[in-house]
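debug: dumping io for the single-chain case to check the tokenizer round-trip. Nothing else runs in this session.
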Amino acid sequence: MYKVTLIPGDGIGPEIVSATRSVIDATGVPIKWEIAQAGQSAVPKYGEPIPQETIESIRKNRIALKGPLTNIVGSGFPSPNITLRQKLDLFANIRHAKSFPGSGSKWDNIDLIVVRESIEDIYSGLEQMIGDDIAIGTKFITRKGSERVIRKAFEYAKEFGRKKVTVSVKANVLKLTDGMFLRVGREIAKEYPEIEFDETIIDALAMHLVREPERFDVIVTQNLYGDIVSDLAAGLAGSLGIGSGSNYGEDGIAVFEPVHGSAPKYADKNKVNPCAEILSGALMLSYLGEKAQSKRVEKAVSEVIAEGKTVTYDLGGDAGTKEMAEAIIQKILKEEV
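debug: decoded output
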């Protein structure tokens, strides 16, 4: 029996997390779900978006599946996603972008992994005002932070049978911060001679991704760049609604989540695509060692999208969240029979 912290999240989170839980339960993998709160929904009870109780639950179980969290603008609270990653030292945010037949992608061969450092960089929140007219944000990059995320990218590439790792930053301009990240990448690449190493300036990467995405496999970069590039990759794959993600710490903690946000305007409308959360759940199953069940889930998602009969609006259909999840569950159960 696996114990997993389950965080419904905000906005559309509870709907897609519920759908994902049903899909995973349909595989028969024995999981004891421990519900925990985070985000805007946690504030009324706990007075903060990331309660210590939730942190302790994740530390105890070592694994969590979460829905998207809403940034509470004007509240004085920092980003709950960033806070969660910092409190648990989840230094690597890994996002998959894969095109499925019927996903609406103009490409039929998108299969990218973006590994994003998620503790440092400009997202660390080191900002200050100088007088009333000058705002300064500090780009914070360390050798340790660079080493561990780049090594994670190579190890992840090995685990998933990938052939190439591309380090992408702006080292031609930011010679100290990005320059160090690139130098570390070159050093670590020598430890993995079986994996091809590539380096690309971040703006050139964006151009090449649009023109010839097949030239990339695993991309590793810094926090801000990775946030942008992973959304671009998800768009190339056809929809943010199929972008899966995960976060990893050095002490074995892993938190799985979709790439997209909480979309509060669609909350409780049974409208949004649950596949990004479901595919994140599939990554979780793989991490747990349930690789066959992980593949069953991904196969069922692929088949439902390809048929196009029971898909949500972003995939050209008119099905609801629950209906699409149920169609995926039926594919899983049919294969079992």
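debug: round-trip ok. The longest strand covers residues 92-98.
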